[in-house]
């Protein structure tokens, strides 16, 4: 006899997300010589980072993986802790419940449901943008405000929505004549939205967007992603 790779039988499509979480956790964290079906309930956060990175690169089919600052944001989200340092998180362990049982504070979904939504959106609509490093993606709204508040009018960046599963939003700074600044977040775009009109063309449409953070003119950053045929109609 031989142990197979993990299999989960589902009876409805709405169980697909949980099934994928179970398979991912089993594949990543089970021991070779384990008792069948026994998997650790908690794993080192560092190991989880490696798993999320491998999963992201494989699903999106990109060579551009997650960066240190991405892991920091993901740790803040899964542990619901905004006061710890990057090094603090490295010594922690994360549980199955934190990964895919507990609902994120103020949301209606788990960490894995949110991350899987990001995977699906990036795979379907944002692969080239991600691979060109045009999307920061994994960054909090609060940190975006800190980054953009001192930037010139029209500076923007792209982040994955915290409030919706599978959404990407554009944060941009509006600077008043008195020098005051305000950071606004545009309503998130879903895969359905981006299948109707691409992210590049939407960015071209929005006149208030001028420079991709920190200081790249938007046409220079996104020009290769514009749909020329659309513009000629």
TrEMBL record:
Q: Where is the SH2 domain?
A: 114-224
Kindly give the PANTHER family that the UniProt entry links to this protein.
SIGNAL TRANSDUCER AND ACTIVATOR OF TRANSCRIPTION
- InterPro entries, per this entry? p53-like_TF_DNA-bd_sf, SH2, SH2_dom_sf, STAT, STAT_linker
User: Which Gene3D superfamilies does its entry note?
Assistant: EF-hand, SH2 domain
* Family membership noted in the UniProt record: Belongs to the transcription factor STAT family.
Q: Which GO terms describe its biological process?
A: cell surface receptor signaling pathway
Give one GO molecular function term: DNA-binding transcription factor activity
Organism field: Podargus strigoides
Cellular location(s):
Cytoplasm; Nucleus
According to UniProt, the name of this protein is STAT6 protein
Swiss-Prot/TrEMBL keywords: Activator, Cytoplasm, DNA-binding, Nucleus, Phosphoprotein, SH2 domain, Transcription, Transcription regulation
Q: Is the Cytoplasm keyword given for this protein? A: yes
Q: Which domain of life is it from?
A: Eukaryota
